[in-house]
Every structure is written in structure tokens, then in C-alpha cells.
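Narrative of activities, Objective 1.

The group set out to show that a structural description can be obtained from nothing but a protein's sequence at a throughput compatible with the screening campaign. Below is one input-output pair from the validation batch, recorded exactly as produced.
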Amino acid sequence: MGFFTVFFQMLALLIMIGAGFFAARKGMMDEHTNNQMSHMIVNIFNPLLIFSNALGAVGQVSASSMKTVGVAACGMFACFILLGMVLTPFFEKDLRQRKIFQLMFVFSNLGFIGIPVVSSILGPQYVVYVTEFVLIYTFVFYTYGIVLLDGTFTLASWKAMVNPGTVFGVAALAVIIFDIQIPEFLKTACGYLGGVTSPMALMAVGFVLAQSDWKQIFGQPRLYLFSVVKLLAIPLFMLPLLKLVVADEALVRVCMVMFGMPIGNMPLMAGNQRGIDGSTCGAAIVLTTVLCVFTVPVLLSVV
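Output recorded for this entry:
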């Protein structure tokens, strides 16, 4: 898969981010609008996108490939956790901020960015594999992530795992595994509603970019180094290990896209809830999201 083929697909996503930036700067979006959009994406559109793509993949995805991708996803998080523990001290000296950096290494934007990237570059039939990554992400965050921040694990963490994303994610896997047929009118409704996810999620990124301090984002050399390590060095380090587990070239591409995704919002939100300054994390989220337009084509060209 050539660099420029992937690059122009990623450029289309960047244009959607630009649309959100434009809307925010022109006053068509404000903080309330963005919060409402994000709430709808998380609870309605993104879960239905996952489910809709699973409906379209019935009969096309084998149980063995699902198992293979599940193993790769577990391996990804294990490597991210270990490498985050080793590399974080090189980027941050403050002990509380180190916890956020460790989370930044581990928890990428697999849903909002990963789904549109996989769908546009590799095809919507591969989004069902992203579902596996997202489900494992949820479990790892509410176990490892919460224990790292709080030093303990509570019942509330278990309850937080049950949300529309995980419910529809499990339903999507069940549809694939048990070859469940759904009435056509439900497929159509889920498809239209799920189709809202990608442009709306990317416009939300553009809104954040428009509201951010650009000097804070683009003026920190350590964040560029962190981005190179996060988006390129670690995925390329993991590629030979991935090929030991995954033989199918298309599945290797899916996994490499997941390996190379930018930082997600969960580390920022979890840190804010605990009174940890999130300015550096917020800047890193925006920077890695912009840079992945260039790094994802590099990863897929190498594959």
C-alpha cells in the first residue's frame, strides 16, 4: 500500500478536522455544542457504527481471524504498558504527571480516529476488528489505568465498563460469531446513524484545535520527540512481533493502524477528575492527532 495512496485518504480526514476548526472559529460551534456532539458520538453514533459494520461483515469474518486479532490487541496493550513504564521517566520528572504520560503511551484514540481511518483506508468490513481493540481498551483502562492513578480498584470501575460502546461492541461480536441475521430496515437505520460518527468526531477534533493554545501544542520539543516514539518508533518495533502472530497481510495493516493511533481523551479526562494538570496531555492529544496524518501512511508503506 503506497505512501501517497494512504496519505490522500488521511488528508480527507484532515479536511473534516479543518471543517470543525472553521466552524468553531466562525462561531457555529461552541463548548456546549461540542459537548453535546461528543455525548451523542459516545452514546449513540459510535456504538451504532460498530454494530452496523458488524452486520455488513456477517459471513465475511472468520472466528479464527477474530481470535488472532484479539491476541494481537492483548499483546499491544501489554507492550504499551511495559514500554510506557520504561520510557516515561525520559519525558517527565514530576511523579503525578508521569502517571499521565504512562497512560498516554497506552491509551490511544482507537474509536474516534481509528474507526474512520480503518474504514476509509482498508474498508468498512475491517471495522469489526477495531471493536475487539476497543473492548480490550475499555477493560485495560478501568483496571490498569484506574489502579495506576488511584492505587486501588473499586466497584465503580466495574460499573463504568458497562456503557453503550461495550454493549454494542459485545453485540457486534455476537452477530459475527453466531452469524445472526438482522432485518434490513434495522441495518439501514444503524448504517445511517453510524455514518454520522466519522465526520462528527473529526469535527470535534477541529473544535479542540481551534480552542487550543497553538504555542502550547506546537512549541514543546519534547512533545515532538514523544510523538515520534508513540506514533512511529513503538509501532515499527512491534511490527516483527506482530508478524509472528498474524499471517494475514490485511489484518497486519489493521493492527498497525491501531498501533499508530494518536493519544485518546481518556488520560486527560481521568487526570482532570483527580486534579492533575492536563495542559501537556491536551497539547499532546492535538499534536499526535495532526501528525498521524503523516505517520499512518509511513507505517502502512513499511507493512
